[in-house]
Design brief:
With 469 residues, the protein is of the alpha+beta class. It has helices at residues 2-14, 43-49, 56-69, 73-84, 116-129, 167-175, 187-194, 250-262, 287-296, 299-302, 309-316, 347-354, 406-413, 418-428, 457-468; strands at 37-41, 97-101, 107-112, 137-139, 142-146, 151-154, 158-162, 199-204, 226-235, 238-247, 279-286, 319-330, 335-343, 363-368, 371-376, 400-405, 431-438, 443-450.
Length: 469
């Protein structure tokens, strides 16, 4: 029975490809508590990206499957009617659907009604198809359908799906126009609706209470004053995850500024020496400020290294700029790899030598041209410019840049762990590269590039699913 319900609803969602106009900001925010974690889904955009509207064979397969599973002619007729005219489902999927929950385990889904009568027919048909005797009822101007698993409430404008809530409590939400304590008055929610991705999430850090104790927070900072905004967007051959920290108190804003001060803007001077290989990390470190923050917050004491404070201070205060690591391909028994860090003197190298380290075949290190360096590889020499490396523009002005080539990571992994190599190889069947970088002091992006550059990742995933189907 559950399978029949799932197939019918899935087909209705796929049928949305014919709907026009873009998803808009929701007028239903008053139903969402202002302390909730919220996920916004632009269903229309997802299915446009999947190009299901152009895939007649896929639609035919789904229609045949649903019709073969439907146990009543009424269900079959409804499916056909909705395929011919998706608006007959009664849902307006041009508007976003919101999934949300609070730390009180209050989970719900919220969306927009296009036609109440059509939606009523849909619910009654699906209920009967699932073997239930429940039908849509009405109370105080609100329609609802309730079964053992969930309840659906709706009026002319909104549908609201929830579990384990009293009918009168939900109906009260429909009757109350007060927006106090809801997302309708939230600046963070306004940023969520303005974000460009087709899947977006607003996560209040209060959900981490219990995992993050007060002594782990910056001085004066509270979890209620920090949220994270995440959005997913895609294009041909690329998926991009954006994130932003939304701070609402001076304590958090000062902490973010302090953290940014520990990482200056990248100059990119060492980029020309790094191979465009398996892995590259580039950042900028203000060692003096890093040490000051560690000392203020008692980090060394927490790590049990308080007796080495003078050594840590000497090493960190020698660092004053770009830090870069690059790992290339295997050329012999060792991979070509190099690390450079701008330092005011050779303190780091001196410390390494004092502790018994020394250059040897395949591993060279030292201090040269204002940088402490390590070069690994049988034929890899420090400060040697490489051909076909990274363009300086990818790092200049950022605070952090990370790059991984999945195929080369897989090759390197084979030298150390068969399970790691297997996982990397599995990822390499679909992914080409991974990049991560900051876009401001409070935001950044994770970019995944597919091996197949001809398709949007949503279409790629759907095509794989259809092959299984």
């Amino acid at each position: 029975m559950k399978q029949r319900k799932t197939n019918l609803m899935y087909l209705l969602l796929i049928a949305v490809f014919v709907l026009s106009s873009c998803a808009k900001s929701s007028k239903n925010a008053r139903f969402i508590p202002d302390n909730a974690a919220v996920v916004s889904i632009d269903v229309k955009q997802m299915f446009e990206k999947a190009k299901l509207g152009e895939n007649e064979e896929a639609k035919k397969k789904f229609l045949e499957t649903v019709e073969s599973n439907a146990k009543s002619q009424e269900s079959k007729d409804l499916v056909k009617k909705i395929v011919d005219d998706p608006a007959k489902a009664g849902l307006d999927l041009r508007e976003p659907i919101y999934l949300f929950g609070t730390d009180e385990n209050d989970f719900a889904a919220l969306g927009t009604i296009l036609d109440k009568d059509d939606f009523t027919q849909l619910l009654n048909t699906l209920s009967k198809e699932g073997g239930s005797e429940s039908v849509v009822k009405e109370k105080d101007g609100v329609q609802y359908l309730e079964d053992s698993q969930a309840a659906v409430f709706f009026n002319d404008e909104v549908f609201y799906i929830t579990q384990g809530k009293k009918i009168d409590d939900i109906i009260a939400k429909f009757k109350n126009d007060d927006t106090k304590g809801t997302m309708a008055e939230s600046e963070d929610f306004a940023k969520l609706t303005a974000a460009q991705g087709f899947i977006k999430a607003l996560i209040p850090m209060t959900l981490a209470e219990g995992q993050i104790t007060k002594n782990m927070l910056p001085e004066g900072a509270e979890l209620k004053d920090l949220s994270v905004l995440i959005d997913l967007s895609t294009d041909k051959g690329e998926a991009k995850f954006g994130f932003e920290c939304l701070a609402k108190s001076d304590a958090w804003k000062n902490y973010i500024k302090q953290s940014a001060d520990m990482c200056g803007k990248i100059a990119g001077d060492y980029l020309k020496y790094l191979p465009k290989g398996a892995f590259m990390l580039y950042t900028n470190i203000n060692g003096k400020k890093l040490y000051e923050v560690m000392e203020k917050n008692g980090v060394l004491a927490e790590l049990g290294a308080a007796d080495q404070q003078d050594i840590v201070k000497k090493i960190l205060e020698a660092i004053e700029g770009d830090f870069a690591i690059g790992v290339g391909e295997f050329k012999g028994n060792l991979p070509d790899a190099a690390a450079y860090i701008k330092t005011k003197d050779g303190s780091i190298i001196d410390f390494a030598k004092e502790n018994g380290m020394k250059p040897e075949k395949g591993i060279d290190f030292g201090f040269k041209d204002g940088a402490s360096f390590v070069a690994i590889g049988e034929n890899n020499a420090a400060f040697t410019e490489v051909k076909g490396g990274f363009d300086k523009s990818v790092v200049s002005g950022r605070r952090l840049y990370l790059f991984c080539d999945i195929d080369l990571i897989s090759t390197l992994s084979e030298q150390f762990s068969s399970s790691a190599a297997s996982n990397a190889k599995m990822a390499g069947e679909h992914l080409k590269t991974i990049e991560f970088y900051d876009t401001s002091d409070t935001s950044g992006e994770l970019v995944l590039k597919l091996d197949d550059e001809s398709k949007d990742p949503v279409q790629y995933i759907i095509d794989m699913a259809l092959r299984q189907f």
